[in-house]
Amino acid sequence: MATKIRLQRHGRKDYPFYHIVIADSRAPRDGKFIEKIGTYNPNTNPATIDLKFDRALYWLTTGAQPTDTTRTILSDEGVLLKKHLLGGVTKGAFTEADAETKFAAWKESKAKAAELVANKSVAAQAAAKKARFEAEQAANKAKADQVAAKKAELLAAAAPAEVAPAEESEAAAPAAESAE
Fold this sequence. Notes:
alpha+beta, elongated
């Protein structure tokens, strides 16, 4: 039987969620499968992959052929590298301990790269938040300046009106004295 490692679509319209399954190559996409070895959710950022590493490696070594997308997923998770290293051990190119150290080094470098991306993302979010805060402060300051200018204008308009009646009463008082 020709087996494939492929994706089986689930989820609602415009929101896919996939199961990574081992299936007969003649079975329909969402039909009967032999074993479910993981899930793939492309809707999250970054995409969420939950994979049974040992079972995926087992099926690859027994001859299951991954589809293009699952090949990429298995490569990102390190299953294809592990299979390659195990092939080198069987050929006698290096020992199993060497293969494990190479795989551990690859896994560590992958984790460091993921951490760098996560830190970069967090830093970008913090910078964006700071920029939004500064823009909001500038807008608030501009609004406060406008309100202060309007208040000063209203006070200036009200002050001459109060001064004018006082001046008129002072002018009227000397005229009254001269009339007496």
